[in-house]
Amino acid sequence: MKWVFVACAMVALSECLIQVPLEKTKTARENLEEQGLWEQYRLKYPYNPMAKFDERFAVGDEAMTNDADLAYYGVISIGSPPQSFKVVFDTGSSNLWVPSVYCSSPACNNHDKFNPGTSSSYKHNGGSLKIQYGTGSMTGFLGYDTVTVGGLAVQNQIFGMSETEAPFMQYMRADGILGLAYPRLSASGATPVFDNMMNEGLVNQDLFSVYLSSDTQQGSVVTFGGVDSNHYDGPISWIPLSNELYWQITVDSVTVNGQVVACNGGCQAIVDTGTSLIVGPQSSISNINTMIGASSQNGDYMVNCNNIAQMPDVTFHIHGQEFTIPGSAYVRQSQYYGCRTGFGNGGDSLWILGDVFIRQYYSIFNRAQNMVGLAKAI
């Protein structure tokens, strides 16, 4: 299978890194912009990045949102013989789900669908699954089957199969989601894929790491059971989790040109591969965007594309270390809508450090020590 590779040192098989390449593709927003449908879409399905972190959905229903800027997907397989699916490797949720052949929603018609009837290893569960989006929901049922991730075959993995899906999913490239947060977040008590990897002794270390390439379609990768030194430079900063539900840490402050512009006195942030932007409270995000010279237009913060090289760094102070995001990293250019910043409005207090942050910092998610490791990505 061309999407699977295993990087091994010569010394021993135990040094293998189990890796899944991620493809950086056109986002739903880019596809909609090309069709001239973006403004209509954004009004009909407003972006609510905090939906999946709503405490009302922390146990029970899994919450998600319609992030039209998500660009990174990897391929897994389910069943015997294997059926392939493109999934978002999402550190902000805990369930695995894909569309099923029993789904007739428009969102399922242009995605790969799992057929339990053709898998010899499938076992029915009988339970139901509901995933609450910011603007709709996915409903489905649960089953067990072999899930293969990066060449690792996880036996009897519980997963969801959709029967209905929210309309906005038809514009997304991914078929489904593979959640990598903590098990107590999981809907229906389903054991997450990585927990089963650990329980079955399939990984050398109880951690995984994520590298998101900034410029090219290729090169991004999720590594299970280890850290790939080819993708970072310098020391790893280890940050203890402040809440072992999501990958949540404490940010001490955010500065621009040495001036504190947000998180004065500290705030909570979730390192989330399933969110494209850096998201924070509206007043804080407004402060940051004002300091970097952006103006608000139709829900986006826009800048002059000619000014990117002169724009100031935005620095996150975390656990005594500085994590700096330059203008070239936080500004995104669209051929249809000009240049907009990667800082978006969110909830009342919680922050999300999404792909804009992770592209700059190789991120290690350590379940053994309940820490996040950050190192400068290369």
Automatic annotation (TrEMBL):
Which keywords accompany this UniProt record? Aspartyl protease, Digestion, Disulfide bond, Hydrolase, Protease, Signal
Q: What class of enzyme is it?
A: hydrolase
SS bond list = 103-108, 263-267, 305-339
Q: What region holds the Peptidase A1 domain?
A: 72-375
- Protein family: Belongs to the peptidase A1 family.
Q: What is this protein called?
A: pepsin A
Question: Quick one: signal sequence residues?
Answer: 1-16
Domain of life according to the entry? Eukaryota
What does this gene product do?
Shows particularly broad specificity; although bonds involving phenylalanine and leucine are preferred, many others are also cleaved to some extent.
| PROSITE patterns recorded | ASP_PROTEASE, PEPTIDASE_A1
Q: Which InterPro entries match?
A: Aspartic_peptidase_A1, Aspartic_peptidase_AS, Aspartic_peptidase_N, PEPTIDASE_A1, Peptidase_aspartic_dom_sf
List the PANTHER family: BETA-SITE APP-CLEAVING ENZYME, ISOFORM A-RELATED, PEPSIN A-3-RELATED
Q: What is its EC number?
A: 3.4.23.1
- Cite the active-site annotation: 90, 272
Protein's GO biological process? digestion; proteolysis
Q: Which GO terms describe its molecular function?
A: aspartic-type endopeptidase activity
